[in-house]
Amino acid sequence: MPSKPAPMKKSPAKKAAEKAPEPAPAPAEAPPVDAAPAEAAPAAEGEAAAPVAETPAAEGGAPADAIATEEGADPTIPTEAAPAEVAVVVELPEAPTPLSPAVPTSAPLNVSVEDVNETNLTIKWKEPQTIGDSGLDGYTIEYCKDGTTDWVVAQKELTVANSLCIHNLTTGDLLHVRVVAVNPAGRSEPGTLAQPVPIHEIGERPKVRMPRALRACCVRKVGEQINMVIPFLGKPKPVVSWLKDGKPLDTKRVNIRNSDKDSIIFIRTAERDDSGVYEMSVKVDSFEDRSAIVLQIVERPGNPTSVKLVDAWGFNAALEWTPPQDNGNTEITGYTIQKSDRKTGEWFSVLEHYHRLTATVSDLIMGNSYIFRVFAENQVGISEMSVVTKGVATIHKTAIAYTPPEYLERDYSEAPKFTTPLSNRSATVGYTTKLLCSVRGSPRPQIEWLKNQMIIGNDPKYRKFTNEGICCLEIRKPGNFDGGIYTCRAINPQGEALVSCKLEVKQIIQAESGK
């Protein structure tokens, strides 16, 4: 019997698309696969299934083409090779980061006593420095009597506040107290009180009453005597202690005298090394109050490090200098610049309280040579020493052609003019009288006096005075015939002026006796 023709074969790529299972997710950086694996399609009913050769991509090798043949078919009949397809690359999700294990917090900080009385004790503290990602659930407070190890929890539940009052305590007990921070990881290291607390009533809490004058920085000069009194409160008598810059005081340098109400700090002769922060502490049982005094001992500064003559031109000289190495333990407030003429050698201040490090000195004298020196200043005073320039500033002479300006000469000539006229007067027989007037004129006018139009000569009865334009005629002991018209005449080359007045001389009439 003639054999049946072989059925049509599907390409391996199509078969792979129909029957191939979904590929498993590949790693993110896996190389792409050239072709997907394919399965042979089932043969038609009554026909034998022909095995189909796959084209797998062998590990480390290239894919090979295969020809599908049916069992018993002529192998000489060729079949079409399947084209290769690129598989889809799927990135795998990153693995989750493992959570860090929970750890307890650090110990609470600054555990201290806030209040105490006969039956209650109030404790305060600060949160731990390190809390962590686990957070903080709260605090538990525990206490025990001195000499025992039986710790008692002060509250039933955790507290989230930073203070707690412990009630129903026994008067006279000496208690140790500790605070523990709690989170999901457990208990932290305890924060404890430095000293046990006696349970009793405090008469008066300690308090430092720092005077207002000592609250700011106290500035004193080297060699001064320091005597500061700081009062305080507290019952029973507080324990007073002093520290300087966090260390105990040197009793050889600083004397401390304590009484029931105040503490005195005494330094006989202040030195620079006595500067610092003096901290006073008053303590009653577990209660303590502190206050600090900042003491600054100052003195005059050293001289500037160097000074330089930068330039000299015209009538000017430019200087620059550097600050002193020793500022006297206080701020430099300025500089004083002085100059000296080489001819005289005397020093004169040209700038005082000057704040810059460069200066220009002006108005120097032509033909002279100058040297300069600089002093440093602070709030105590100027430095004892100065620094002098090595260079000399010479002001050279220059030829100057000076032509004085021409001025028109003013003519001050003026004819005489009386500014104050003579006034009529009445005189009494036997009593000397004066006639006065004032006159102006340029050149100075000559003065003549006339009586009844007659020139008064050198009659000793009359005295004539002229001073700064004031003209005076004195009539000595006038008689009945000395009355009349008196005239003052002023004459100069520009003209003349006259002024007159009337003088009346009266006789004293005495009453007859018996009438």
Question: Any descriptors?
Answer:
515 residues, mainly beta, Immunoglobulin-like, 5-stranded mixed sheet, 41% strand, elongated
Structure commentary:
By secondary structure, the protein is mostly beta strands. The protein has five domains: 10-96, no CATH class; 109-198, Immunoglobulins (Immunoglobulin-like), CATH 2.60.40; 204-298, Immunoglobulins (Immunoglobulin-like), CATH 2.60.40.10; 307-394, Immunoglobulin-like (Sandwich), CATH 2.60.40.10; 414-506, Sandwich (Immunoglobulin-like). Helix content is 2%, strand content 41%. The chain contains one helix and 35 strands. It has one helix at residues 12-19; strands at 109-116, 121-126, 138-145, 152-153, 163-166, 174-183, 186-187, 191-192, 197-198, 204-208, 218-221, 226-235, 239-244, 247-248, 255-258, 262-267, 276-284, 287-298, 307-313, 316-321, 334-341, 347-354, 358-361, 369-377, 387-388, 393-394, 414-420, 425-428, 433-442, 446-451, 454-455, 462-467, 470-475, 484-492, 495-506. Strands 3, 4, 6, 7, 8 and 9 form a six-stranded antiparallel beta sheet that branches. Strands 11-18-17-13-14 form a five-stranded mixed beta sheet, with no helix packed on it. Strands 21, 22, 24, 25 and 26 form a five-stranded antiparallel beta sheet that branches. It is elongated, with a radius of gyration of 60 Å. Residues 1-84 have low confidence and may be disordered.
Kindly summarize this structure in a few lines.
The protein has 515 residues and is mainly beta. It has one helix at 12-19, and strands at residues 109-116, 121-126, 138-145, 152-153, 163-166, 174-183, 186-187, 191-192, 197-198, 204-208, 218-221, 226-235, 239-244, 247-248, 255-258, 262-267, 276-284, 287-298, 307-313, 316-321, 334-341, 347-354, 358-361, 369-377, 387-388, 393-394, 414-420, 425-428, 433-442, 446-451, 454-455, 462-467, 470-475, 484-492, 495-506.
